[in-house]
Amino acid sequence: MTRLPSGTTIRRDAGLYGFERALARRGLSPIAGVDEAGRGACAGPLVAAAVVLDGPIPGLADSKLLSPARREVCYDLITSRAADVAVVVVSAADCDRLGLHRANIEALRRALARLSLRPGYALTDGFPVDGLGVPGLAMWKGDRVTASIAAASVIAKVTRDRMMVQMHERFPAYDFATHKGYVTTRHDEALRAHGPCDEHRMTYANVRAVKEGR
Length: 214
Prior knowledge:
Strand content: 5-15%
Structural class: alpha/beta
CATH architecture of one domain: 2-Layer Sandwich
Oligomer: single chain
Distance between the termini: 44 Å
Shape: elongated
């Protein structure tokens, strides 16, 4: 579904929780938000999260707009206060095997399926996801306009960042703890100096070029 249910309207000043309130008034609770982290990285996993909120989360916003410290605070609040949280991790090798878009869609679908609560409605960030089993809406920049997707973005981002810090211990030459596997000048320099490791996505152009000696 790419449109809200007929008769559902969202006021422009409704705030971050406006979509959830409007959908709840239509009897579509519980409402799940689904988002991912790591899509643009050339190393490390893709992580998807689904969250069903049970009330406001103080300070909640799109994970990209929060400082690392604030993300950690929000993560703890979400995991302790949300009605349900589910996480799916897709390895770099599986991102290569499936293709990034397919891996992304499957991760979002699997995260929703792992929720203990069956949602009455699903809000996904960016991409429409078929086969959810419940009605849903794909939202452009959904992590900035709806609370449940923002919460999912925080869970996915913090989960993945923690994994990349742990990965740094195994592969310190790449400085994964700093750039989290995204393409930066420092990361590209390390990639050229040491070649790709097992956690790099071999289908990405910059990684493939180094692997092929170009």
